[in-house]
Design brief:
This is Bifunctional chorismate mutase/prephenate dehydratase. By secondary structure, the protein is an alpha/beta fold. The chain is built from 12 helices and 15 strands. The radius of gyration is 23 Å and the shape is globular.
Length: 352
């Protein structure tokens, strides 16, 4: 018997053991589902702890991201034994929002594509979906304004986040640049590929649409049109990728938020998001954030947005390092509330 044959027999035996263990895990998950009293299937804090322990124990040769991907599929399938989660995202199929949903929840879910970010919020608020996935900021283009505005007005909570590397591809029915007269994509994607488009397609019209996948759909049916989207979108809609990775910044990354109606317990490594407003007076901002410095709470983000209640009035979106039940954060927020004209807790959730 050759070494190759021996290794193949070893793999067959290992696969059998893996199958047995996965089946045992699924059986345990099913029993846990019958013991839960709150009826909540997805526990972000618990799943975050599972991934962290696995990555900590991983000695290779598989990367941490590969381990996360493998166990995401296992956990998703085990979770579905209780009930398939309905997850809404900016659709249609093939968007980066869908990729973020798969990265967080796995493939064994009920996909609920939405036509807009507003519709994602509406689907979760009306219980058509248990969870929603929305983009909140991009490393190149900054904050997604509509998401911030809806977080301010909505009663939904942030229960998780996903950090997704974004790679844009130019695709069309034909395989050359010379035939392209128009390029469709989401406004954010067009902005993230602005320099490439100026250098390679300087005289070509660009048109922003509601989603990258909508752009792909239009490009497929219009002669001389192309789209900017993910490789997954090209495969789904059977278009040819003409140029890969055309984003201007190769470290281009988008942060997505997971929305739900539930509060999330401590996972051990968490983040808290709040939005506050203060009176328009000298030193108001410094006075507002002073309790965080005093109580040694790290602020990881400070983003201002017009409050839409008066000229030059602003609200401030703040991310804090820790959970709102942590004594230091709890004390800080109590102090901030006495200084702010408005404070809203958007959610505490595991760091990705």
């Amino acid at each position: 018997m050759s070494n190759l044959d021996k290794l193949r027999i070893s793999i067959d035996n290992l696969d059998k053991k893996i199958l047995e263990l996965v089946s045992k895990r699924a059986d345990c998950a099913k029993k846990i589902g019958t013991l839960k009293k709150d009826g909540v299937i997805y526990k972000p804090e618990r799943e975050a702890q599972i991934y962290r322990k696995l990555i900590e124990k991983n000695k290779g040769p598989l990367s941490s991201e590969s381990i996360r991907s493998i166990f995401s599929s296992i956990i998703s399938s085990c979770r579905a034994l209780e009930k398939k989660l309905a997850v809404s995202f900016l659709g249609p199929q093939g968007t980066f929002s869908e990729e973020a949903a798969i990265k967080r929840f796995g493939n064994n879910i009920q996909f609920v594509p939405a036509a807009s970010i507003d519709e994602v919020f509406s689907n979760v608020q009306s219980n058509e979906s248990q969870y929603g996935v929305v983009p909140v900021e991009n490393s190149t283009e900054g904050a997604v304004s509509r998401t911030l505005d809806l977080l301010l007005s909505s009663d939904l909570k942030i229960c998780g986040e996903v950090i997704l590397p974004i790679h844009h591809n130019l695709m069309a029915s034909v395989g050359n640049l010379k035939s392209i007269k128009k390029v469709y994509s989401h406004g954010q994607s067009l902005a993230q590929c602005h320099n490439w488009l100026m250098n390679h397609l300087p005289n070509v019209e660009t048109q922003a649409v509601l989603s990258n996948s909508e752009g792909v759909r239009l490009a497929k049916k219009e002669k001389g049109s192309a789209a900017i989207a993910s490789e997954r979108a090209a495969n789904l809609y059977n278009l040819k990728v003409i140029r890969e990775n055309i984003e201007d910044e190769k470290t281009n990354t988008t942060r997505f938020l997971i929305l739900s109606s539930q509060d999330t317990k401590k996972s051990g490594d968490d983040k808290t998001s709040i939005v506050v407003a203060t009176k328009n007076k000298p030193g108001a901002i410094a006075d507002l954030v002073q309790p965080f410095a005093k109580n040694k709470v790290s602020m990881t983000k400070l983003e201002s947005r017009p409050a839409k209640i008066g000229m030059w009035e602003y609200v401030f979106f703040i991310d804090l390092d820790g959970h709102h039940d942590d004594p230091k954060i709890k004390k800080s927020l109590t102090e901030v509330e006495t200084k702010a004209s408005f404070l809203k807790h958007l959610g505490s959730y595991p760091k990705y």
